[in-house]
Amino acid sequence: MSPARIAVLAFAAVPWMAAASPFLKGRVVDDSGAPIANARVSARPDPGASAVEAASNAAGAFELALPREGRYLVSAERLGYFRLQDRPVDAGAEGAEVTLVLNPQREVFQSVEVGESPSPVDPQQTHREERLSGTEINDIPYPASHSLRNAMKLMPGVVEDASGGVHFHGGAEYQTAYTLDGFDIGDPINGRFSTLLAVEGIRSLDLTTAREAPEYGRGSAGTLAIHPENGTDKFRFTATNFIPGLDTHGGLHIGDWTPRAGFSGPLVRGRAWFSDSFNGEYNRGYVSGLPAGQDTNAFWTPGNLFHAQANLTPANILYGDFLSDFAYQAHSGLGPLDPVSTTVEMRSTEWLGAVRDTQSWGRGTVLETGFGWLAAGNRGSPRGTAPYLLTPNGRMGNYFAGWVTHGRRAQFFAKAFTPAVHFAGRHQLQFGTDVQRLGYSADVHRTEFEIVGLSGLPSSTTSFPGSGNFSQPDTAVALFASDHWQPHARLAIDLGLREDWFESTHGAGLAPRISLAWSPAASGHTKLTAGYAILHQPPSLALLARPLDQQAVTTPYDAAGVPQTPLVTAFRMGGNLAMPRFANWSAGLERAFGHSLSARAEWLRKRGRDGLVYASATPSALVDPGGVGYKVGGTYVLSNQRRDDYDEAAIVVRQSFGDQYEWMASYVRSRAVSNAVLDLGIDQPQQVAANSGPMPWDAPNRLLSWAYLPFPFLNRKNWALSCLADWRSGFPFSIVDTNGVVSGPVDSHRYPSAFDLNLYVERRVTLRGYRLALRGGVNNATGHRNPTSVNNTIASPNFLRFYGDEGRHFVVRIRVLGKSKI
Question: Residue 607 in contact with residue 528, Cβ under 8 Å?
C-alpha cells in the first residue's frame, strides 16, 4: 500500500475514532468558584450500570473517556462536601464539558435532607488522614468547647496532657507541623501551637499522620492543616455565648465568658468574598485546693481572623489572611502546689499576614505561590523578688525568672502541578519548594532558686550569671517532587522525594516516600493501604539558642547547711550534627458497609533516630548506657543521641446520616517511649540517671466515642442529643527525692485512669426571625476525679497525693445562627 493511501485512510479514521470515543471533561469547584482537588467524578449511562471514574487535579480539572455517545448520570464527591448525585449530561460525538459545584458541609438549621454524604472510603487516597469538620467541632461537647486546641483531641490518636499540651500520635507538641490556609503557624521559637482561633471560623481540621505526601515534611508526628471558612454570595453571621455566665466558687461571681462571632459574605458578588471570625475569652481560672481569694487565675484574650478570596479570573484566584491575637494571664502556673506568689504575669501577641495565589492553565497546569509573615511576642513578669523555694510540699516565694521574647517567620512557597501524563497508567506530577527565614530574640533575667530539704535547711541554691540577652536566626529550605500514579483503576501509588536543608546544622537530608492504595473489588468499598516514609524533624530555635543563654551555677549544701563547691552547668553546640530522622512504616484497612457506615484499622510504627539533645560531654558511669541522663553541673553538648519510638494500632467506626448527624467510636493501643524523656534546661534543671522510659503523654489504652444524634421521640428538626465518652490510661510521672533527683526509672508511676462523660441536649428555635441553638448539659457527668497534679516527692507528708479534681460541671450555650431566611 502506498504512503499516500495510508495517509488518506488515517485522516479518514480520525472522525470515526472521535465519534467512537467521546469524552467528558470539566472542573469541580465549590460554591465560591475555588477548585476542589482530589474529587471523585463518575459517569454512568443508567443508575444500575457500571461507571467510569476519574479524580480532579489541583485545578479541579478532570477528564473521562466515555464508551459511547448519549446521556450520562454524572456524580462528584469529596470529603467535606455534600455529594453531587446523578446530574444528567448529554455527551455527543465531540464530548461534553461541565462545571460541577460541590457545596461545603456547613452547619445546618431546620433542614432534614441537605444532600448526600460522600463515600467514607476514597480508593485513590493513599495517605492516612483524620478529618474534623467545623460542624463536628461545634456540635460535639468536649470540655471548654470554645477552644480549638481542646477540639483536636476529638481525633483518635490525639491526647491532651495535664498542662494543655496536645500530642499527635506519640509526638511532642513541637513535632507536629501546624498550617493555616497553607502557611506554617507553629511558634517560630519552640514549634508549639499557640494560635488562638474561633471555632466557628474553621471549616475543617485535617491531620495527616502516615503516608504523608512530600509537600509535608516539617513535622515528624504529622501535619495539622487548618482551613478557615470561605464567604459566599449570601451574608451570614453567628454569635455564641454573648451573655457571661455565673460562677459559685467562693461566692457568686461573673464566671467564664467566651463570646465568639462570625460574619461572612460578598465583597463583590460573584467575584470576591470574605469571612471574619472573632474569638474572645474571659476565664476566672478557679483552682481547687487553694485559700479563698488566692484560688483564681484570670485569663482573657481577644483574637480575630480575616480571610478573603478574590476570583481575579476563573483561572486566577487570590487568597488573603490576617490574624491578630492578644492574651493576658494574671497568675500563670497557679496550682495546688504553686500559690499565687510563685506565679508569673503573662502577656503574649501574635500577628499573621499572608497572601496566596493560584493560577491554572489549559489541560490542568497549576501554579500556587504564597508569602506569609508571622510575628509572636511573649512577656513574663514574676510577682516579686523574694527567694524562690522548692520544698517537699510545693513551691514558695516569687518565681525566679522574667523574660521578653520575640519570634519571627517569613515564608515563601511555590507548588506546580503538571497536566496528567499517560504512560503505563495515569501520572499526576507535583513539584515545589518552601523557604523560611526564622528569628528568635530574647531578654531574660533570672535571680536564683533554692531547694529545701525535709529538715528545713537548704539542699542547694542555683544562680544565673550572664546577660540573658541573645538572638538566634535560622533558614530552612525544602525541595520536593511527587507522582500520583494510577496503573489501574483500583490501584494508586504515590512516589515522592523531599530534601530539607537547615542553616543551623549545615546539613541536608533526603526523605523518600512511597505509599499505595488497592481496592480488591470493583465497587471500591474495601481499601488496603501501606506505606513507608522518611521525615526529618527541624531543630527548634529554643534548643539552638540554649548555649547563648545564661549559665546555671548550683551551690550544694551538706546536712548541716554548710555550702560546698559550686557546680557550673553550661551548654555548647556540637559539631558535625546529622539531621534528626524518623522512619515511618504504616498499613491500613478500610471498609464501607453502606448507609455511610464505615470502619478502618490502622497500624503505625515510627522510629526516630539522630534526635537533637544536649548530652553530657563526660557521661557518668551511673547513667544507663542507652539513656541521656543529667546531673548537677557539667558541660552539655548538642548531639544526635536522642531516640524516640512509637507504635500504634487503632480501630475506628463511624457513621453519618441526614441533618449533619453522626457518631464515631474508636480504640487506640499505643506506646510512646524515648531515651531522653526529661530534658535539661536553664529554668528546669533535671537530675536523672535512668532517663529511658515512657513519655509523659504516653497513654497505652484509649477509648473515645462521640455522637450528635436526633433526640428520641422528639422532632428531629428541632431537638438533638450530643455526647462524648473518653477513657484513657493515666499519664506517667516520676518520683523525686528532696534534692529533686529522680528516684529509679523515669516515669515509673502513673496517674489513675481518666474518664469523661459529657451529655447535652440542644433545642433549635426561631425567635423574631433569628435562628437560635440553645444547649444545656453536664461535663464529667459521673464526677470522675481526673487529677492533674501529684506530690511526687519521697518522704513528703503528702507523698503520692493527687490534686486538681475535675468535678462535675453544668454548662449552658446560646448560639445565634443568623436570620431564618437570608
Answer: no
User: 236 with 818: CB under 8 angstroms?
Assistant: yes
Give 327-375 as a 3 state SS string. Answer: EEEEEECCECCECHHHCEEEEEEEEEEEEEEEEECHHHCEEEEEEEEEE
pLDDT, residue 324, reads 97
The span from the CA of 355 to the CA of 320, in Å, is: 5
CB burial class (10 A; 0-12, 13-18, 19+) of residue 273?
A: buried
Q: Which of 716, 718, 707 is nearest to 774 (CA)?
A: 718
Exposed/middle/buried for residue 197 (C-beta within 10 Å: 0-12, 13-18, 19+): buried
Which domains does the chain show, CATH number per domain? 18-101 (2.60.40.10), 128-819 (2.40.170.20)
Instruction: Yes or no: say if 80 and 119 are a contact pair by the CB < 8 Å rule.
Output: no
Of the candidates 745, 740, 648, 661, which has an alpha carbon nearest to the alpha carbon of residue 708?
A: 661
Q: How many angstroms separate the CA atoms of 531 and 586, rounded?
A: 5
423 pLDDT exceeds 80? yes
Query: In this prediction, what percent of the chain has a pLDDT beyond 70?
Result: 92
> How high is the pLDDT of residue 439?
97
Q: Residue 586's beta-bridge partner residues?
A: 531, 604
The DSSP secondary-structure symbol of 175 reads G
* Burial environment of residue 470 by CB neighbours within 10 A (0 to 12, 13 to 18, 19 or more): middle
Q: How far apart are the C-alpha atoms of 672 and 696, rounded to whole Å?
A: 9
pLDDT at 287: 76
Above 70 in pLDDT, residue 106? no
With bands split at pLDDT 50, 70 and 90, how would you rate the model's confidence at 699?
very high
pLDDT at 298: 85
H helix or E strand, kind and range, residue 19: helix 3-20
Q: Return d(Cα 810, Cα 633) in angstroms, integer.
A: 50
Residue from 765, 757, 768 nearest 809 by CA: 757
Other beta carbons within 10 Å of 153: 20
The better pLDDT of the pair 486, 38 is held by 486
Phi/psi for 153 (5° steps) reads: -75, 0
pLDDT score at 302: 94
pLDDT at position 24: 85
Residues near 432 by Cβ (< 8 Å), separated by ≥ 6? 215, 413, 414, 415, 416, 479, 480, 481
Q: What are phi and psi of 769, to 5 degrees?
A: 85, 5
- Model confidence at 739: pLDDT above 50: yes
Please report which confidence band the pLDDT of residue 111 belongs to, taking 50, 70 and 90 as the band edges: very low
